[in-house]
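Figure-free illustration: sequence to structure, shown twice.
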Amino acid sequence: MMMHQARPGHHPAQQQGLSLLELLLVVVILSAASLLALELYGNNDNQLRFEQTRQRLQQIRHAMIGNPQQNRSGFVQDMGRLPVNLRELVQPPISCDGGAVPDDDLDNDGVPDDCEWAFDANSGLWAGWRGPYLDTLPGINGVLSFRDAWGNTNPGAPENFGWRFETNANGDVFVQSRGLDQQANPADAATFAVLNDYERDYPPSADALDVQGLPSPLIRSVEYQLDISNGQLQVDLGYLPPCWRCAGAIGNSRAECGNNGGIWQPISTAIDEASCIAAVAIWQPTDGAKLVFFQRENGQVNSDLLPGAETVNINYEGTNERLLVDLPNGFTAQSASLSYAVVWDADNNGTFDNDEYLAASPVGAQLIPIGRQGPLPLLHWSVF
């Protein structure tokens, strides 16, 4: 058998390495891919922060005027005023009226005594601060705050957690984030033009010619105020006793009964005129019925709302639960914490005692619900 030997200088084929030029090309490609990935990640991160900031604006809105979908009230319903800054949504106010002078806090619970969440026996309403209205965690310094998703700060106004927060004379509320660059929009149009969408203030100015202007209101006054001057209000009272009897004396009217030493009492079991007459009583559905309005104001319940009077006479025909109430001149712009109760001057002394409120039904059916924690039902209101 013949053996073949390799010729001198001839070697089998071997795998060749990358040249320097090829290595440089690989490095360039990998660098470009890394930069692209970083850019995409940065854009995705900014978009996420943008969406989170938009969600936090809605949280601020709900903290102020409530969230009907979750049956939760807000600061305005509980306190009867707008917050003077965003800190009041997270921490108790130092004063019930929003002033700079602290109110007394004798029990040292952090809430001024006059606007602690408490029950008002005269109206059947709760009122006071019951926050925090925003879910938040303490920062590095242990202080509660609610910043935008970029973590903006404003050393000049720490009470607003870096947000731009303003209200106008009408009661509209404006809240704005300073964006990625944590700066107010520049007034110079050329400088503003080079900013990307994340660096610009959000929401943008409502005036296209003024990039530093206020955005559209986060909350409009009509969303929490009620202007019903010189109008009629439709309310749902439930069943009211329209049947009356003189107890302890003879009398076919409140005046005659009182003159004879009797007590004019409603007969709640008589639901129509026939059953009232059968009970030897008088069908008199409008006798003594009045409407008293209440409003939370600076954390307390205030019933001194109407010009020159605290009550409104009502015209109730007996069995119809819906009622049109004529309101006096000047009854305007009451807040979202407005409520009412129906009362009778049962002892005919010209005043309404606690036991004369309509105790058979919830005391104070609401025009606008207080929501989260309260003894009253949620009713709808409408203005004509």
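We now fold a second protein in the same way, so the two outputs can be compared directly.
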Amino acid sequence: MKWNAFDLVSVSISKTKERLFPFQFKEWLKLLVITILSSWAGINTGSANFNYSSNSQLTGELVGELGAKAKTFFREHLGFIGIMVLLISALGTLLTYIGSVFSFVLLEALLNKKSEFSFRKNHAKGFSLFWFLLLVDVLTIAVLGALAYPYLHILYLGGALSAISTGYIVFSITAAVAYILLLWIVLLFFNDFVIPFMYMNDVSALYALKQVWSYILKNKAATLVYFLSRLALNLGIAIVGVLIALASLIALLIAGAVVFGIGFLLHKIIGLNLVFAILAAVVGVVFLLVFILGVSMLSLPLSVFGKYFSLFNFEKLMDANIFKYKPKIAKLKPWSTAKKVIAVGLLIILVLAMLFGILGYGVWYAATNLETNSTSDEVFLGDSELQDAATLTEDSSPESVVE
């Protein structure tokens, strides 16, 4: 089915107004929490700037010094690095699992016009999505890690990046950027089309991906237009979000200045420095929380609009009516005892990994401090002995004997 994605902007705006207004603080807050939790299933990628000159001796010396320091740091803090990697991996896996389930909770909240934390109801589909995203995470780490290995190896050995050929530098950067861009496109279509398909048909993530891909191949031109419209809307939403944050920050600074001025005048009249400092800290924390909540609330319509826009395009692509869809009994087979045992086992492993990570960090920190203190004592005693030896030498010099 052919369609123009830009024609669905106005109906998406109308749907957003219908969902969010009249304003109800409790409903907005619940929807905001669900939106934040669902975002944990996404993959955030960063960018890096490379300033490289193979003809600069100074650059080579600086990089070599950096490599030596990196080598020393890795060797001295290998246990700490391992513990942190374990902690971050366990926490990231847990957040991905929660976000995967809440991706369907958010979809249900937008379609049913009522926000409910229906975690158990959407657990089966969310668990299927979680395994797919976990596979993507592992693949991403493998690809980017393989591309970065030569750089890390050179730095670890204390060498300079000039040892790496210019051809590989160009290849690795190009390949990393291309992979990240491809990954972003895949996850965009997965979020916009595959997740709604899973919700409507109660199927696994891989099966839904195959079906959606077949529809995309039949509607290449319309899908490309949708992709371009998504880029334009994402840019517009980002700009509006920044403007909202700046306006909120200015309003907060003005209100904070007024409150601080009144408090400062009372402080000058009454005194009580400690009380004023405590109240200033408390008010500052309150203002910060209000700022974060305010910006999140004001930005919520932008997130809801983007989701409705993708859902209307999903309807056009799949020739379905998801807004009139009535949830049926899940077609996904109930979990077998083996799957339940595996799931519980993975959860226990995650919890134990985090606990052992925290415990290991405490042991490492204590051992490091103990070793540092012991070394300091030895150095101190060594200096004292040298000082005593120097004194004895002066006393036993020929001049002192003659005198």
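Summary for the second example: Confidence is low (pLDDT under 50) at residues 43-60, 375-386, 396-403.
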